[in-house]
Amino acid sequence: MTIGVLALQGNFREHTAMLRRLGADVVEVRKADQLESLDGLVIPGGESTAITRLMRLYGLEEAIQRFRAPILGTCAGMIVLGRDQLGLLDVAVRRNAYGRQVASFEADLGLEGDAVPLRGVFIRAPRVADVGPDVEVLAELDGEPVLLRQGRLIVSAFHPELTEDTRVHEQFLELVREETHVRA
């Protein structure tokens, strides 16, 4: 299983380390042609405006829109995948809606079907303003969605790569395995 991590800006190193720890082969993606051999893609947290500009500059915007394998988007990655950017995810997102850098926080999140809470690290985190009918909410914070899935896409408003908890990445890799079997 080969997973690409968009390595233009942001927390790509942390995602790479976690995915490797879980046994995936990882490629740091900086060019559109690198997407062709991947089983999945991670769009990390970082600065969504910078990531979007660099994606355009390197010809990745349209290539990611054509990419048909599973995608995990965290924080800025959720913004990039949403309605107002790439339009792959039927979610409206407000940037930095939990506040500035000094308002960053951690919180325990309840996961559907799991008794152990997931620790969420929220850094200048986006807030989900609207969710389309085909989007499943997997975790909430104070009644607001922060972990969601729509088909082959999983997104989070927080940074799962900044904790030791691997469950979000495990769920993504399971989705990649399922999709790989379907395509085969």
What does this structure look like?
With 184 residues, the protein is of the alpha/beta class. Helix content is 27%, strand content 33%. The chain has 5 helices and 11 strands, in the order βαββααβαβββββββα. The protein has helices at 12-21, 48-57, 60-66, 76-81, 167-183, and strands at residues 2-6, 25-29, 40-43, 71-74, 91-94, 105-111, 114-122, 127-131, 136-141, 144-150, 153-156. The strands form 2 sheets. It has a 9-stranded mixed sheet with strand order 2-1-3-4-11-10-9-6-7. Strands 5-8 form a two-stranded antiparallel ribbon. The longest helix has 17 residues, at 167-183. The two termini are 13 Å apart. The model has no long low-confidence stretch (mean pLDDT 92).
Concise summary:
This protein has 5 helices and 11 strands; from the N terminus they run E-H-E-E-H-H-E-H-E-E-E-E-E-E-E-H.
